[in-house]
Amino acid sequence: SLHVPPRRLFACAGRAGSDAADVDEADGDGDLDDDPSLVDFASSAQGLRDSLDELRKLVETAGEDMDPELRQRLAGMGDQLQRWSTDRPRRTPTNGVGACVGMSVSRAGLRKQSTLQALRRIHDADTSPEDLADEEMMRMIAACINDVTQEDVTKYLAGDNPMLPRAMVLRAKELDARELVLDIEEMTWISLKATTKSFIDELQGKPTSRLHIFMAAVLLLLACGFLFMRFRALQSDMSRQKKDKQEKKKKKR
To answer: What value does the mean pLDDT take over residues 24-51?
Structure first.
C-alpha cells in the first residue's frame, strides 16, 4: 500500500500557508465583512463543504485495502474541514492562533533579533512541527494553542493581555512540551504559517496584510487536494496490483 509520510503532509500545509501570507492586499482598515478586495467567504465556505463531501465519499468507498494511516489522516482532515467550514473566519482558530503568536512574540521580546529569526523559521514553507519541536518560541505558541481560552483571545484583542500568561510559559518549558508541537493539526499548521508572516512584516516595519485570515481557510482546499492526489495514487497502485494478480492466475491455468 501507499505510505504518506507525515512530513510530506506538513510540507504541503506549510507551503500553502506561506503562499497565502505572501499574497499582496490593498491597504485599508475597514471591517473585514465590508472589504470587497477580500476573498468572498461564502464561495470559500461552499468549496470547503464540497471538498468535505468528496473526502467522506473517498473514505467510505476505499474499502479495507486502504492504507490505515492515510485513512486516519483523511478522516482527520474531514473533521477539521467540518469545523472550519461551518463558521466565519473571525470565529475560526485563526484568531486563537494569531493571539498565541502575538502573546508569544511579546513574551520573547519584540526587539530581539532572535524573535524575528524564530518567526522566520516557523514561516519557512519547508519546516515541519518535528523541525521546530525543540524551539522555545514554537513551544510557547503550541502551549498557548493547547490551553488558550476565548477569554484569553478577547483580552489580547482588546489590548488587556499582550504577553503570554506565565502558566503557558512554564508549560512550554516542561519536558513533554515537545509533544504539544508535534500534535498540532495540519489545518492549524496552515493558519500558523500564514499568521507569522504578518508579525514578521510588522517587526520589519512593513505594511501588514489581513488577507492571510481568509486565505488560511481557503487554502485548506490545497492541503485537502494533496491528500486527494495521494489517495488517487493509492487507488492506481491497488488497481495495478489487482490486475497483476489476475494475470498470474490466468498463467497458472
So the answer is: 44
C-alpha cell of 131?
523541525
Alpha carbon distances (Å) from 71 to 62, 74, 129, 219: 8, 5, 21, 21
The gap from C-alpha 144 to its chain's centroid, in whole angstroms, comes to 15
pLDDT of residue 232: 64
Which of 9, 24, 43 has its CA nearest to residue 222? Answer: 9
Distance CA 234, CA 236 (A): 5
The model's pTM: 0.55
Distance CA 204, CA 27 (A): 17
CB 203 within 8 A of CB 80: no
What confidence tier does 49 reach under pLDDT thresholds 50, 70, 90?
Answer: low
Cell numbers for 12:
504541503
Nearest C-alpha neighbor of 149 from the set 188, 196, 96, 87: 96
The Cα–Cα gap between 187 and 223 comes to 8
Query: Among residues 122, 123, 119, which one has the least CA distance to residue 110?
Result: 119
Count of CB atoms situated within 10 Å of the CB of 110: 13
What are the residue ranges spanned by the domains of the chain?
14-24+39-59+66-222
Rounded distance between C-alpha atoms, residue 193 and residue 124, angstroms: 8
Query: How far, CA to CA in Å, does 148 sit from each of 26, 92, 153, 197, 221?
Result: 31, 13, 7, 21, 26
How far, in Å, CA of 46 to CA of 70, rounded? Answer: 25
Please provide the size of the chain in residues.
253
